[in-house]
Design brief:
The protein is built from six helices and 100 strands. By secondary structure, it is mostly beta strands. The two termini are about 70 Å apart.
Length: about 1250
């Protein structure tokens, strides 16, 4: 037994994180808004809707568009979504406008899950903006989000108008970590300042955005940075977020830059962003300062940038890297640079902390290609345990220094234990080799071993990479069956997988025998399984199972396949499949149906001259495909035949003339055809004596000699002074060029070649074999013409040009013929476009009835009939048809109504289309409720959110008008979740929403006219004041803020009352009481009113002094020394929550329930001591604990339901349950029980 290992490296493809090409959509980004839709975000939403249109307009008008699509992720605890993804900016704005804020008072929120969803659906290198006024409730998802940020290389920016009041909570710290990792920032604003941030977003959503500097600081400090600006930077943006932000920028000459800076954002005590266009190349100095925790980002617009990929071994291809390093494994970095051309080069790569501090600097070697490929390899190093940015520095091709920073920070991948997998069952064949495979995926090196029944087999091996191992059993048998286990262990842990080896094989089929059958005979194909194992046997052809047990093709009881009356199309391969529980086996059986060959040789007769090349083409058909052989006389020619039966004679000699025979043969028979090949040689002539002298009366012999094949004929002629000898080579016609079969589209021209040689020169004529005459006129512009060369030109081919054409060449020594078939194609039957079967018009309303021709070759003719009359009258008052097929009816009358039929006819066929014309006379009339106010034909209506509204639109007309509704010009479907068009034509809107405040138009139309009515619907929302504490306690002299956050439409008017008396307040949303006194105690009422109703909230204000004193004033001489005890334990003055006043009283700084107990005061001097005991009880106001139960429940009808209310307070609070504002304690189906030690 041998243990084999086959290691296969596995690589993780790195994901692009930069927009490197403005023309390549594969690098385009997503603009994503993650929005909190709780009620307190109402003002934020209005500003985001307005700002989004400006962002989209600015982005889409840029020459390079960075945005490919838009994503909107609303969230409201406990729900996230629905997520909207679109490439249409208008649809994105519409989705924003349809958001509806609701509820409120819940802090924190499910914001991290919403960010995770946005990252999952967004493209790499995207812009994600989070709008909320609460910290995260689901901060445990932070790790998943950070991994997605590093994978997607996207930026996350937080726009916070609140944070639940405690920035030390994990829910807020998660925001900071996500922003720091993604090179994003957190902006703290008032709700009125959201619009200012959106103006900044307009400028920052850009293509070719690069990062220059990033730092995060937990405390107030001032920092100075030197940053090189290279010529490729078209603009630079400095963004500082934190309290009291200060930015100073000095150019390479040391001049402080005030002018030339564009201020994109300036929110006092929160953020400042400035922008500089086309900065001077060189080293710039940036000085920033903040009064507390702050973040700094410096970005630019440039085509010079880089991407980084990590690997555990050196690689030369970027797609062999991963997006993060692995903890504990030395990392190699491959940098892919764009916009950097030689001699420009990288010099160093620096690892930088989140605060901008350098962790390590590594030199970047110059690659062998001097960086022409844009790939730079950094030797291996160990990555730090903390997160880090990568900063590269170098010089461009002009020698200017530059630096770039990665868009995200990197953290190490904590490797998981190896992932081990094996098949559940390994099927082995008896006494055959069996391979037991084990696949392992691991980010770190691991050791692997096989075991059987807990006992190790073979040696343990060390692997560096993911791969696959095999345990081989050379000759598997029954004793090898059983469980086998593969165990892989790395520094991250141990994993194992189990498989079962079985040696019972699938059925084994005997070797098949192919079957040959003649046409009409019976063919039987056999298929047998070796041995006696149970099996199921089926036959298949072309992937389909043959199930028939009767008929021409059937499966016999012994599983043989029988085919009766065999046809040629039955020939081919058939598969026999044997199956049992262990698998299947299959063999292929071929059915051969022999067919005697037929053979055709072209040309039939051919002449050649010495040295020329002769080609004879032999084509044959038959089954199986016949073999072809050529012979010359009685001699076979095996060496001159090509694969396609072409006989080629090169450098022909006279002895090559003769008869050539093509023989086609297969098992069904043979076929032959013989052609004649004639040698021809042009005659040559010469005179033995140019001048012959003879005496008058004497004999003269004039000798004239000639050569040629065939032998020329000699003729003499005598002129006045010369006797001419002319030789004629008597030669029967031979074709030197013959026509071939051709297929021609209608309307095209075709030329059939036919050239003959011979002596005398043969006459070439053409005719159709069926006896039809060919009309030939020289130089005719159409029809059929025979050219001077003998070719036949058929112009503008038509149907009657199809046929078998015969070319005949004739002289006194013989006649030869050749044939060629012309087939006419491209014919299409007439096809008319489908249209409305019924057309309606009004009297005197002229119209055109279309009869559009979609197809038809040759072009069909169109004819119209009206009520069976054909043709239509031609007088001007009657319907007229034009060449385009339209039927124009001027000033139609009632008698023009009826059935119109358009018929298209051609030589290929015909088709027709029937249209019914109705002529109506009564138009639309529309009625609606009277007494409404508004402009003419516009009705103003108001409705309350959640109610049902019916917009009347009762229409009359003949025929019945078609009623349609639109909202702000967009059509409304007849039935949707909210809208229903009633049979009367009125529009019913159920459960109206705030976004339903739109202009609605009812349009009624019939052929006689149309009419419309507008409704201006204004949706009102009763004022709803967000819940606030009913009791406030404040120190005397403290500033007290009584909140009154209200929603409503139209915007409610807010009034304040103190003990029933009006109070003047500048900010109606919050009543501020400066330096509160005892006279300010009492009940404060906030009343919000609008046209939809009003809401009232009352808050009681009580004052108290800051300290709680446990009084015990001692006296004595000398003045006694005072000591305090609680529950028997001494109280020391240095305890933070206790202090002792000069008169000996014990003062508790901020009383809580833990301070309740028995206190004892002991006063002592030289004369003695005395003590006094006091019991302190601290009351705690009621508080309902969050037990994690969802606020919204879905339950089953008639099933019990328990609602928890975990309340705490001292003394124990009284709990009351209400439903829809009514007490439920008296209802028989509701039982209120109090659990032990709780108030549930």
């Amino acid at each position: 037994r041998v243990l084999l290992y086959d290691t296969i490296p596995v690589f993780v493809a790195f994901t692009t994180f930069k927009i490197l090409s403005s023309t390549d959509f594969s690098h385009a980004s997503t603009l994503a808004f993650v929005f909190d839709v709780t009620g307190s975000m109402y003002d934020d939403l209005k500003q985001v809707i307005d700002g989004a249109s400006r962002i989209l307009e600015k982005t889409l008008n840029r020459r390079t568009r960075p945005i490919k699509n838009f994503v909107l992720v609303p969230f409201h605890d406990p729900d996230i979504g629905p997520v909207s993804i679109t490439t249409d900016p208008k649809k994105f704005q519409q989705d924003l406008q349809e958001l509806f804020v609701q509820g409120g008072g819940d802090c924190p929120e499910m914001s991290i899950g919403a960010i995770k969803k946005a990252l999952e659906v967004s493209l790499p290198g995207s812009f994600i903006y989070v709008f909320t006024d609460a910290r995260a409730k689901d901060y445990r998802l932070k790790r998943d989000v950070l991994q997605l940020v590093q994978l997607r290389q996207s930026q996350v920016v937080f726009v916070l108008t609140g944070d639940c009041g405690d920035r030390s909570q994990p829910g807020y710290r998660a925001y900071e970590e996500i922003a720091a990792t993604s090179s994003g920032q957190i902006f703290h604003l008032d709700k009125q300042q959201v619009n200012e941030v959106l103006k900044w977003v307009e400028e920052t959503v850009q293509a070719l955005k690069v990062h220059l500097l990033s730092s995060n600081h937990d405390s107030a400090q001032e920092n100075q940075w030197e940053v090189p600006f290279d010529p490729s930077l078209k603009e630079v943006t400095v963004s500082l977020s934190g309290p009291a932000p200060q930015i100073e920028l000095r150019d390479p000459l040391g001049t402080s830059l005030e002018e030339g800076l564009t201020e994109l954002l300036n929110i006092p005590n929160s953020a400042r962003v400035v922008n500089l266009k086309f900065p001077r190349p060189g080293a710039w100095t940036l000085k920033v300062g903040c009064g507390g925790r702050h973040t700094l980002r410096v970005t630019g617009v440039s085509n010079l940038d880089f991407r980084a990929g990590f690997s555990s071994i050196p690689v030369s291809e970027f797609n062999h890297t991963r997006e993060r390093p692995i903890k504990g494994v030395p990392a190699h970095v491959l940098l892919k640079c764009t916009g950097l051309k030689p001699p420009g080069q990288l010099s160093h790569m620096e690892l930088v902390s989140g605060s901008g501090r350098s962790l390590r600097t590594l030199p970047v070697p110059l690659p062998s290609d001097s960086g022409s490929r844009g790939l730079w390899s950094v030797p291996k190093f160990r990555t730090p345990s903390q997160s880090f940015f990568l900063k590269v520095t170098g010089k461009d091709d002009k020698g200017y220094p530059f630096q770039r920073l990665s868009s995200v920070s990197y953290t190490n991948i904590i490797p998981d234990p190896p992932a081990v997998s094996m098949p559940k069952v390994v099927n082995g064949f008896y006494m055959q080799p069996a391979m037991i495979g084990c696949s392992v995926e691991s980010d770190v090196p691991y050791r692997l071993r096989f075991t059987r029944s807990g006992v190790a087999i073979g040696e343990e091996k060390l692997f560096q990479f993911s791969g696959k191992a095999f345990w081989e059993i050379p000759h598997a048998s029954g004793e090898d069956e059983g469980p086998y286990e593969c165990i892989a262990q790395s520094s991250a842990g141990l994993r194992r997988a189990l498989t079962q080896l079985t040696t019972e094989p699938p059925p084994v089929l005997k070797a098949p025998l192919n079957v040959s059958s003649t046409v009409g005979a019976v063919a039987v194909m056999a298929c047998q399984v070796e041995g006696s194992m149970r099996h199921n046997l089926t036959w298949q052809r072309a992937g389909l199972t043959i199930l028939a047990h009767s008929g021409r093709i059937r499966v016999l009881p012994n599983s043989f396949l029988e085919i009766n009356e065999v046809q040629p199309q039955d020939a081919g391969q058939y598969q026999c499949v044997a199956t049992n529980a262990n698998g299947d086996s299959r063999v292929t059986v071929w059915l051969l149906v022999p067919e005697a060959p037929s053979v055709v040789v072209r040309p039939q007769r051919q002449a050649f001259s010495r040295g020329s090349e002769v080609r004879l083409v032999c084509t044959a058909a038959g089954s199986p495909p016949p073999q072809l052989f050529w012979s010359h006389g009685n001699m076979f020619l095996p060496n001159r035949i090509s694969n396609h039966g072409v006989l080629t004679i090169r450098d022909a000699l006279p002895e090559d003339a003769g008869n050539y025979t093509c023989l086609a043969t297969n098992e069904a028979g043979t076929a032959t055809q013989t052609v004649s090949l004639n040698y021809a040689e042009e005659p040559s002539i010469w005179v033995v004596k140019q001048v012959v002298m003879v005496a008058v009366g004497g004999d003269a012999t004039l000798e004239c000699r000639a050569t040629g094949v065939p032998l020329p004929l000699v003729k003499w002629s005598k002129g006045k002074t010369l006797i001419t000898c002319v030789f004629f080579a008597n030669m029967a016609p031979l074709f030197s060029e013959t026509p071939v079969d051709m297929t021609v589209d209608v309307g095209e021209n075709v030329t059939l070649p036919c050239v003959a040689r011979g002596f005398p020169l043969p006459t070439v004529t053409w005719r159709l074999k069926d006896g039809r005459a060919i009309i030939s006129e020289a130089y005719s512009s159409d029809g059929t013409v025979q050219l001077e060369t003998g070719h036949l030109l058929i112009q503008d081919v038509w149907l009657d040009d199809e046929g078998l054409y015969v070319c005949e060449a004739k002289n006194q020594f013989g006649t030869i013929r050749t044939e060629a078939r012309v087939s006419v194609s491209g014919l299409e039957p007439p096809l008319l476009a489908h249209g409305a079967p019924v057309i309606t018009t009004g009297i005197s309303q002229s119209l055109s009835i279309p009869c559009m021709l979609l197809d038809g070759i040759p072009l069909p003719e169109r004819h119209w009939t009206h009520n069976g009359n054909q043709p239509l009258p031609r007088d001007r008052s009657s319907p007229q048809s034009n060449p385009d097929g339209f039927l124009h009816i001027l000033n139609p009358a009632a008698e023009d109504a009826g059935i119109y039929i358009c018929t298209a006819i051609s030589a290929v066929g015909y088709t027709s289309r029937e249209i019914k014309l109705s002529v109506n006379s009564k138009g639309c009339t529309l009625t609606y409720s009277k007494g409404v106010s508004g402009e003419e034909n516009t009705v103003k209506m108001a409705a309350e959110v959640g109610s049902e509204v019916i917009l009347p639109c009762e229409v009359q007309g003949s025929p019945s008008p078609l009623v349609t509704w639109s909202r702000n010009g967009q059509p409304i479907p007849p039935v949707t979740a909210w809208f229903t068009v009633l049979p009367s034509g009125s529009l019913k809107i159920t459960d109206v929403r705030l976004i339903d405040s739109k202009l609605y138009t009812c349009s009624a139309e019939n052929p006689a006219g149309n009419v419309s009515l507008n409704y201006n619907l204004h949706i009102q929302v009763k004022p709803k004041i967000q819940a606030a504490p009913s009791l406030l306690k404040a120190l005397i002299g403290q500033t007290v803020v009584l909140p009154c956050v209200v929603q409503g439409e139209p915007r409610p008017e807010i009034s304040w009352f103190h003990n029933g008396r009006p109070v003047e307040a500048r900010d109606t949303a919050a009543l501020r009481i400066h330096r509160a006194s005892l006279t300010d105690q009492g009940t404060y009422s906030c009343v919000a009113k609008n046209t939809a109703g009003q809401d009232t909230m009352e808050t009681s204000l009580q004052h108290y002094t800051h300290h709680l004193s446990v009084l015990s004033t001692p006296a004595g001489s000398p003045f006694p020394k005072v000591r305090w005890f609680k529950n028997g334990l001494g109280i020391f003055p240095d305890q933070s929550e206790f202090s002792v006043a000069e008169d000996g009283s014990l003062v508790i700084g901020s009383a809580s329930a833990s301070h309740s107990g028995d206190f004892k005061c002991v006063a002592s001097n030289d004369a003695g001591s005395v003590e006094r005991k006091t019991r302190l009880k601290v009351n705690v106001p009621p508080e309902i604990q969050d037990d994690g139960q969802p606020l919204n429940l879905t339950v089953t009808l008639k099933q019990p339901l328990t609602l928890g209310c975990d309340a705490f307070g001292i003394p124990s609070p009284t709990i009351t349950w209400t439903k829809d504002g009514h007490n439920v304690s008296h209802l028989p189906v509701i039982q209120i029980s109090f659990l032990k030690n709780t108030k549930k």
